[in-house]
Amino acid sequence: MNSLHIQQHKFPALNAPSATPRAQRCATVRVACAAQLEKRYKSPSSSTASTELQYLESYTTVVPDTLLLQNIEEIEAPKAATVSSAVLAGILRTPGALQEYKFGIENAINYDKCHSKSGDDRLACLLDKATVNIGTLFSKQVEGRVSTEVDPRLAYDTDAMIKVAQNLLAQYKEMDIAQDRVLLRIPGTWEGIQAAKQLEDQGVPTHIILVYSLVQAMAAAQAGVSVIQPNIGRLDDWYAKHPGVIRDPKGPREDTGFMSGVNPGVRMAERIYNFCKKYHPKTNVMVSGVRKPADALALCGVDYLVVGPKVLATLKDSQTLQGYNDGLTSLPQQDDYAAPRLSPELAAQEDFADFECETVTKQIFEEGLGLAGVALLKQGVQGLVDDIERMLPFFSSISVGQE
């Protein structure tokens, strides 16, 4: 009785009056059962393998590292954008970009609020307006936020950076770009981090760049910064030029130079991620300077990875066993792609000394930078200033023509 009841519930059509021949009805039932089974189960051998890029993107947001939003879509669609003096200069010297974006730069000369200024103030106003115009165009092309450079010539002046940041946001508002679509890009100096703290307290998201040491990230995370961007490539370059320097402060003292197996850039990024996720989960970590696929994979699980076209192409062309014959692998523990290398759960287990967990003061900041941090931060700020200096002749000629 129970068996008949179940059959009637599962296949009511078998008990209903019908003129359909019995063989045809049975065939229909077999097809229906097969369709239901197909929805529940898919043969492992019918699944295709994933690429290293697909594996990486299942845990991390990959951001293409390209000066302009061009010639990258065939590998990876841009998710966010950056606008800076270097980007503006790239537009002016790239024919294709010049045709698409030059109007945004030239249109800055018609900005009324710059007309009342003179000299360096007028040039700075023109530069800021051109930056916002290009940032506005970029915001139409990406779904994420546009990281917008705050004049790096002010990297050691907190109040001046805050004033410029507020002017940039006001100009974005005039262009109908919401504040939450913009990240203000600020150098990782002590003064820059203090400016970011005040802006974050006002609800303005900030993006700290030129990060080459854990203490910079600690100070930025404690300041409530939205995004911290350590550059692992430049740190690796510095250690390559200074082979006698200990690469891992937590490692054995004799483990230096070419005998060391420690990748200082990757190790720094791991520590920064773990610190942020353990103590300041609001802060996201965006790692840049990724020059090798192995480094990208070693940081799988980090919030964002800025990856160049060559590394992206290699990751896209490299197959893994993920998604292929899943469940039939005899030694799953040997699968290098089974889980991300970084996660909030693993970060919670990371051991940080008391020094690394206390509030970072200016003295602790300066002492904690280390040789590499001091040299690279100074070099990075100067590089950004040089980018602006290369742009000024263009705006200077425009300014003279308007007077």
Automatic annotation (TrEMBL):
Pfam families: TAL_FSA (PF00923). GO terms for biological process: carbohydrate metabolic process. The keyword Transport does not apply. Transmembrane segments: none annotated. Keywords: Schiff base. The keyword Transferase does not apply. It comes from the Eukaryota. This is Transaldolase. It comes from Coccomyxa viridis.
